[in-house]
Structures are given as structure tokens and as C-alpha cells.
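Q: Could you fold this chain for me?
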Amino acid sequence: MTQHRARDEDYANLADWPVYTYTAREALDALGYTHYAVPITAYDFEGYTVPPNTYEQHFRGALAQIDFTLAHDVVEEKDVYRASIRSMRVLRHPRGY
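A: Sure. Below is the predicted structure, expressed as C-alpha cells.
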């Protein structure tokens, strides 16, 4: 059995990123000149990688493990927190899966 591995370059271009509203598309189009997407490494229940265009299908309603880092800085005497999701994995399928 071969595991599927989505290629990051397949999803790095924001013009190809899946969105569901016109407002979201406009926002991504505006960012597309200065930003690029970095897909989160995601795994389904069996441990196979999940391509970004199927995140919602796999994770909506599922119990998932989210591995992340949390960083704290002080900038101009203000606390600034940053969270970065490293990976996601389905632990239990959503009902009706």
C-alpha cells in the first residue's frame, strides 16, 4: 500500500486555494502578490496524508489531534502571541462518515 503525499507546490499558489465565498476569493487574490500558502501537514484516520482541498471533508465534525506551537514576544511593551499549527490528524471520523 502506497501513501499519498500531496506536493506542497500544488497548493502554494493562493489563486488555486479552495474557497467557498466571493469575499474569500477576493481576499486571497489580493494576498496572492505578496503571500503564498504553506499547507498544514494533515493525516486521515488511517495515517494517509490529506491534501488541502479535502481538509474540510476529512475534518468537519471529526475528533482531531492538532499539534501546534505557541510563541510569546513583547513588542513595544505589548504582549504578542503567535500560534502555528504543525500538523492535524483525524482521531475519530465524524458521524455518518
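A (continued): Residues 8-92 form one domain.
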